[in-house]
Amino acid sequence: MGKRRKFIKEKIMALNKTTTSSQGFEAVNAYHRVEGLCLVTNEMISFRVRTYKDVAFSAFADNGYSCTYDITGENPIKQAYEYLKTLPEFANATDC
After folding, report:
1. pTM of the prediction?
2. What count of Cα atoms within 13 Å lies in the side-chain half-sphere of residue 47?
3. How far from the centroid of its chain's Cα atoms is residue 29's Cα?
4. CB under 8 Å to 55, separation ≥6 — which residues?
5. Pair 37, 45: CB distance under 8 Å
6. CA-CA distance, 89 to 56, in Å (whole number)?
7. Which of 12, 34, 68, 94 sits 20 to 30 Å CA-CA off 52?
8. pLDDT of 52-79, one tens digit each?
9. What's the angle, vertex CA 54, arms to CA 56 and CA 94, rounded to 5?
10. Phi/psi of residue 73, each to 5°?
């Protein structure tokens, strides 16, 4: 049997950033939320980022990411957001 994974379901924040969908429409101040975070190992997390026009609409994008994780550091969801802010596609994103 494979390794068991721990899932964290809590959603604590999001990022706002204007983005263009794969269909070509621009969503001004789109809402990007980390969901489905999983502690893969004591040093690695994986998670999905779903993008919404705003919180009242269904997600129009869903992308997977993974990054290192500091088990003695902040909440892993907070660490996921901090990682996203280092990526070019989330440059100039703001916390919301």
Report:
1. 0.83
2. 27
3. 15
4. 31
5. yes
6. 23
7. 68
8. 998 888 999 999 999 999 999 989 999 9
9. 145
10. -90, -160
Enter the tokens of residue 49. 């980022």
| DSSP secondary structure letters along 17-84 | EEEE-TTS-EEEEEEEEEEEEEEEETTEEEEEEEEESSTTS-EEEEEEEEEE--TTSS-HHHHHHHHH
Place of tokens 């893969």: 40
Identify the DSSP state of 4: P
Q: Where are the domains of the chain?
A: 6-89
**CA dist., res. 65 & res. 47, Å (int):** 6
Residue 94 DSSP code: E
Rounded CA separation 70/42 (Å): 8
